[in-house]
Amino acid sequence: MDNILVLAHILDGRVKKGTHSAVTFASGVADHLNCKYSILALGDDLSTQRDTLAALGAAKVLIGEAPGLGRALAERWAPIIEQVVKEGNYGMVVSPSSTTAKDVLPRLAYRLEAGMASDVIGVSFEGDTLRYTRPMYAGNINATMEIVTKKHVVTLRQTEFAPFVPVEEKSPVETISVPAPPEVLNRLTFESFDRSVSARPDLTEAKVVVSGGRGLKSAENFKIIEELADLLGGAVGATRAAVDSGFINNDFQVGQTGKIVAPDLYVAVGLSGAIQHVAGMKSSKVIVAINRDEDAPIFQVADYGIVADLFKAVPEMIKEIRKLED
Amino acid sequence: MKILVPVKRVVDPDKADQVTASSDGLTLNSEGLDWKPNPFDEYAVETALRLLEDRGTREMRGEVLVVSIGPGKATQQIRWCLAMGAHKGILVEAKDEELDSTLVAQILAKVVEKESPDLVIMGKQTVDGESNQVAQILAEILEWPQATFAGKIEAPPELDRATVTREVDGGNINVTVTFPAIISVDVRIVTSEGVQNNVSPPDKPYDEGPRYASLGGIMKAKKIPIETTTPAELGVDSTPFILTLSFSQPPQRKAGVILETVEELVLKLKEEAKVI
Q1: CA–CA separation, A94 vs A122, rounded Å?
Q2: What is the ipTM of this complex?
Q3: CA distance A310 to A291
Q4: Window B:13-72, CB contacts with A under 8 Å
Q5: How many CA atoms lie within 13 A of A252 on its CB side?
Q6: Number of folded domains in chain B?
Q7: How far apart (Å, rounded) are the C-alpha atoms in residues B23 and B28?
Q8: Mind listing the pLDDT tens digit for each residue in A240-250?
Q9: Per the CB < 8 Å rule, is B16 touching A321?
């Protein structure tokens, strides 16, 4: 196969761990098919990310910089990546399933006349043919598929690929020429990016996630979820119901339509365990459920369950963990 | 003003865990399960109706055209949307298993060519295939701007553009798209504040969620003829980009233990699971 191009995921000035997972995937495929992989990053100014990207074992790191590129508009990015793919004759573009990749890569795929596999969780080889596995039906079915076009576009579920461990040797870094914005951008205006600020670890990268559901009853009550998460050095998550009720910002939603997480410990508090939520957390190593309804489906996937009023159980849990620390 | 809303027929999303793979892995079995409009597409129909209607005068400022690509039975889901208040329905008859995201987008592009809508609103993904590609590919084919994962839409009374709040990693991005454009919607679009058309009086907020069909709506929907066509009639070459080879069921998690006390839980997490 022709070489592989990894599209880096950069957010808030940081190279996200998903990029490392995509490199693990690319490096595995490249080894098998005897080809190489390069990394492409696009943004306004990537001077502080170059070193991180150069340590990921790539044949080269390609940097595309221009004012406004960090906004990651699909209409802007797709033709830039297309040009890189065509000039470098890449056979595959792969990226973690960030919202940016979901937004941009289908547009790119069509420009490349390529088939696209979304949210891939595994890959196997039939000779030189790649077979991708991806989840369907809220994670209840896995489909194995083949992309029949010459070029492939792939997004990955980062929880399924261990992050690539940086290497000593540095990849050469090249700057690419960025083509002018396409005409379609005359009909789209970027207004603003309202960042959800959190001092806690990133939901998709945290080792511990504490999630709350409708049972929390109010935004005010959500503080006990935050307290437990902080005590465990973890991230805060939420169900769709909690987000819709305004307890917390949508950026924290875990589930089929939110973030997919797989921490070492997932504590599910006051949430019933709807299929759509479980789809986003069932790969967690250890799951704890706290709910006063003993019939709540969340207990079907939990390793440890506590049937109790969360407003009693969570403060108690905080107290017991503090005791351990003393 | 004409808004096109593609709607897919899917297995009842709350029964997704009852879909099984056949023993040879070649087909999926969903026998005995109900079929529904893909929830995100239903939200898209609701969004289109909220954009067009004046809640004060009940006047509709345009029409909503629903198109479904699938088996003949998908007319049921089209009727559902017509009963919600959509005005017209088209069925593009095709077998689900012979379609992929690119083909669906190519078919929709032909429908757009024929019907000339000012706006396409669709669900951000289906809940069965979950690929999250069609809106973006369609936008690329048509060379239209896209606003994906919309949690909020605000449009001026003249409905020539919309400011869309896109729910993305790290927060919300606000973009304004000038029509014709493609908007793909996320769940929050059907909260009571999700759609603002600057025509409906602010003291008449919507209920949460997509509307239920009224009896009158159901009766009316029955009388609306549904136009039927095929990919071939629309001039789409039906060569797929993706082949699905087989299906399997991933191992299920097993229920663990119910513990009596929180003290015991914390001890287990430390000593047994070693995660704290």
Answers
A1: 13
A2: 0.96
A3: 6
A4: 13-14, 16-17, 19, 21, 28
A5: 27
A6: 1
A7: 10
A8: 999 999 999 89
A9: no
